[in-house]
Design brief:
Layout lengths: L1 H70 L7 E8 L4 E8 L9 H7 L4 E5 L3 E8 L6 E7 L2 E8 L2 E11 L5 H9 L1 E4 L1 H10 L2
Parallel strand pairs: 1-4
Antiparallel strand pairs: 1-2, 3-4, 5-6, 5-8, 6-7
Length: 202
Amino acid sequence: MNRIIVILVCILVILSAIILGSVIYENKQGEKIAEISNKAQVSDKVTDDCVEEYEEMQNQENTLDANSKEEIKLSPNCSLIIKTHYIDCDHTSNQYTNLPEKLVNKTEEEFKKEYPDYKIEKFTENEVIISKDINGECNEHYIVRTVDGKLTVFRIERGIEELYEQTEISTEYMTETDKIQFENGLKVYGKENLSQLLEDFE
């Protein structure tokens, strides 16, 4: 009988030890999970703080860029280039001029109010380039014809020839090819090309 009691007590002690060990093991596992979870939360918080700091820096840079862009003011020595693109002939004329006095010390936003129909291609303290597309042809189209034995220049505007210049250049000593060419009318684009053509036959 005593032997049975001893065996039962041993079994109870072993079972108690197993149960106690399981409880301790589960507690330790729970603590590890909680510790990992806490670390993850701290890591997320650090990441969130970094993201917020980065976004704040970006906003400050954008604000500084906007302010510096706004602060550019035109100097009295600024040059203004006005580019006009003519859609019908696909030519672009450039007009170079000094900045009007009333625009000195103006910012880009203030400048836009003076030229609302133009696109600003470049805006610096010393140079502004603006451009605009318009319908029609530019006034740089010419045709050179023979009139009364002399070369005569007509400007073409909206398809109509208007007398531009009556030269003293005679066709008398020209080759037959050149004579025929001017009798039919020789088209020229640009004042520089026109001047060069007339010089070649003077």
